[in-house]
TrEMBL record:
UniProt GO molecular function: diaminopimelate decarboxylase activity
Species of the source: Mucilaginibacter sabulilitoris
Residue ranges occupied by any Orn/DAP/Arg decarboxylase 2 N-terminal domain in the UniProt entry: 41-271
Protein name, UniProt field: Diaminopimelate decarboxylase
Gene3D superfamilies xrefs: Alanine racemase (3.20.20.10), Lyase, Ornithine Decarboxylase, Chain A, domain 1 (2.40.37.10)
Amino acid sequence: MFSKTNINKFQELDTPFYYYDMEVLRATLDACRDASAKHGFHVHYAMKANFNPKVLDMIQSFGFGADCVSGNEVKAAIEHGFDKGKVVFAGVGKSDREINFALDADIFCFNVESVQELNIIDGLAAAKGKKANVAIRINPNVDAHTHHFITTGLDENKFGINIWQLPDVATALRQCNNLQFLGIHFHIGSQITDLEVYKSLCTRINEMQDWFEDHGFPVKVLNTGGGLGVDYHNPDGNIADFEGYFQVFKSFLNVKPGQEVHFELGRALVAQSASLVSRVLYVKNGQKKNFLILDAGMTELIRPMLYQAYHQIENLSQTSEADTKYDVVGPICESTDCFQKDVDLPQSFRGDLIAVRTAGAYGEVMVSGYNLRDRVGSVYSE
């Protein structure tokens, strides 16, 4: 990702910034498209992972759909050329304004997360003389074995409809004349690296589609969600295992004639394509701790502080062996503003360029203006 040429170029730029390696992004999208096409699967890009304009343009060019969790994400998808017939709108708290916008845009489907939401969409669609396609997001109570902050498929999570509520869903669907039932939707969490978890999900999907069909609701779409993880410890040339991921669903999902299988992948498509590049402002050497104080902090990349997430940290300016431990911290007036403690790095100096790797997912999209910080910029390999 980092050649001597672009490191020299970085020296001339204001930091911090997100550096996007568009070749890495293209290779990742190629791998996903090829692996999914083998099985006739449909992939929607989960826009919440990264909505950098150039990133969206490239993803759209590969023919993927868009998975959106806000009205503005729906708007951005359409503005960037995503086929509205491949746009799905999920989210546990859709406002009336957002629903109306999506109805006017004639998107493919709403992933609905409560009985009350079914009734709201039905009423808003009726007022427009429209019929809205809906899929029911079911909480399958499958443990994703990931960080508890990004687990979404357990009974205690706020997402989806619990299995014991399905009779109420069936009643509502029969009463809502302006809804068209398409299928069922699941999403059990994020940064899932144990593919065995998806076997358990397939078992639950098979059970749930049988339930709906037994109650008179033919299932056209099986939307399995996403959550496929990436290797944060090995960022170079380490594309997510799309082949293995899709093969699990091919092997264990009971796909009936005429059904479509949909996926909503975000992190796995974009995470490895970007790094946060920062500059050392100060080096503080203490008796017990050495600190590298960067010009980037939790306002530019909050994942380490919010999720205790690991990102590999590299000194781009020094080529000697790592021989010093540093706590790599930011400039924000919070003790939690620390990227990582006791990082093995070469002896580092003021002005050195530091890269925080695998920052293409949930990095730039979560930037804040806390401390009245300037908005972080973006630099591209192309």
